[in-house]
Write a structure and sequence with these properties.
Distance between the termini: 33 Å
Shape: globular
Oligomer: single chain
Strand content: under 5%
Mean pLDDT: 82
Helix content: over 70%
Number of strands: 0
Low-confidence stretches: 104-115
Number of helices: 8
Radius of gyration: 17 Å
Largest sheet: none
Amino acid sequence: MQEPSKVIPMDRARAQETALAREAALGDQQAFAQLVRANEGALYRIAWAMLGSDADSCDAVQDAILRAWVSLPGLREPQWFRTWLIRILINECRQMLRRRKRTAPMPDAELGGPSGFSDEALDVRRAIRLLPEDQRMVTVLFYFDDFSVEMIARSLQMAEGTVKSRLHAARAKLKRILEVDEP
């Protein structure tokens, strides 16, 4: 947990991100790098939730960052930079999944996920991988990246009610999956 003096209020953090996004849109590489560093953990978790592979997740994040940099001058609403960046990542992941369908299936060895997780965390991650993509995405964004329902709706371009119903369905399915796995 962060020390109280290092905790940034949400409104202030959002204002800082918006200011950095404006600077980045004007070509400031340092501002863009700072934004990317602030979001890299979330980007990786989302990519891994969609792709289930460490290598593919890293590739998707890199491709999304490059695409974002190239597209940055077209960013119309800097206050939604994070949402915009995640939308680009989701599109990159979907392209990778389409390419993967034309090639070989994903090996099961990658389902363990990134190293350093406890057995319970790995069970939850495996259960999340069993969710349909639409439920998996809202679950990862909500629980792992602390996105609000509004931010998820904007990122995935859907109604807030749809996000809520998918979260509800995902919770119910996860409960069933994890109860079956208990000894």
